């Protein structure tokens, strides 16, 4: 097929649950490509000689190669090609912001400055990963001879899982220490079932287990064992403990009953299955009107979860306009389709309670946009005297997270930023403590899954070199 013929093929749409159906269940919203749709979408790829999409991928997947394999019907080969660089394709295909990374570099989108014309790289990645799972046969590669070295990985989020997968494939023994009772980190406790089914996370973790990775759960490093104690047992240590410390508004009334951090709200709803009460014994307040403060993916997840938990009204309160929202366009559109109401250019000034200490209202101040700030987005400027009040009975604060402070606090040898992030050498992932690496949200603050995985790949390679030659 020549380029002219490829250009005539329109972008293929992925089937989805209808909004009026999906708000009453926890099942995944996008239903995935059929083989026919996947092949058709793959045929749109121009197989560019310079492949700008690869440069846009934080883990440098050979995107044209795996897409050509899909076009040829070699789904098994396509997945193997992806897994050369990415151990979590089913996850990344669902939650990574491809429209800001590989797809924004696609020649089809750049030539006409229209991101919707890009090849759906993420959806194709998801397709081949799902195809393998549906076949019921997990393809396990052969492993090299054991090196006799043993690495410890703290945290089983995207960065930790990537390090574990890379090191096991290099011949090292790997033990992952997870503080919670299930693996996945933010993939499990933070991202809703309807966006990332937990069976997907479990499947990817099972793949690592079959490769030989050992997992220890309910194991809090920094309490049960220190980093120093780990270094007595292991040849190298990776810290991937994420950004689990929620940020708050610091406004009056934030300690009222019915005010949640997004972390608590989503952990109850996802990991602890509050949506299935009383079958799952995790209660959650049955709010009728929920206000979620923030404009990122976590805010969208919270507002959409509120509807599925029975809220009659679910609001997004955001201090800028929709154009400045950091959430993925797809997530914003899904929220709107499901009935989430957007109140833009407003900022909370106080949360008001009743005589029993429960939330009953929230006061908002109208904003207007000024000059761009350090983020490149236009700065929200308060409009004096524009306060107004709306009734709500629950508030979810989704304005960001800071790195988990436990290990840095217990390990003063590890240097940190003023805001809590561990300082690393960007080229190697090394911390200031010999034998210790770090990556993901514990370094970046709250970032994306694929960026965390990129950190993991860099760290794993340098850990391998250190364990083999002993040079720091």
Q: Describe the strand arrangement of the main beta sheet, using strand numbers.
A: 3-2-1-4-16
- The named CATH superfamily of the largest domain: FAD/NAD(P)-binding domain
Low-confidence stretches: none
Mean pLDDT: 94
CATH-assigned fold name of the largest domain: FAD/NAD(P)-binding domain
- Domain tally: 3
Strand percentage lies at 15-25%
Query: What integer value in Å does the Rg equal?
Result: 23 Å
Total number of helices: 19
Identify the CATH architecture of the largest domain.
Answer: 3-Layer(bba) Sandwich
Biggest sheet layout: 5 strands, parallel
- Helix content class: 25-40%
SS-based structural class?
Answer: alpha/beta
Report the count of strand segments: 16
Q: Which CATH C-level class of the largest domain is it?
A: Alpha Beta
Anisotropy-based shape: globular
Description:
The model has no long low-confidence stretch (mean pLDDT 94). The chain has helices spanning 3-7, 19-22, 35-42, 52-55, 63-71, 75-83, 89-95, 107-110, 121-135, 158-169, 186-189, 198-211, 227-233, 262-269, 297-308, 329-337, 406-410, 441-444, 449-469; strands spanning 150-154, 173-177, 214-216, 236-239, 245-246, 259-261, 289-293, 313-318, 341-344, 346-353, 359-372, 378-382, 388-391, 394-397, 401-402, 436-438. It is α/β, with parallel strands linked by helices and 472 residues long. The chain has a five-stranded parallel beta sheet, sandwiched between helices. A five-stranded parallel beta sheet has the order 6-14-7-8-9. It has three domains: 3-135, Alpha-helical ferredoxin (Fumarate Reductase Iron-sulfur Protein, Chain B, domain 2), CATH 1.10.1060.10; 150-244 and 402-469, FAD/NAD(P)-binding domain (3-Layer(bba) Sandwich); 248-399, FAD/NAD(P)-binding domain, CATH 3.50.50. β1 (150-154), α10 (158-169) and β2 form a beta-alpha-beta unit.
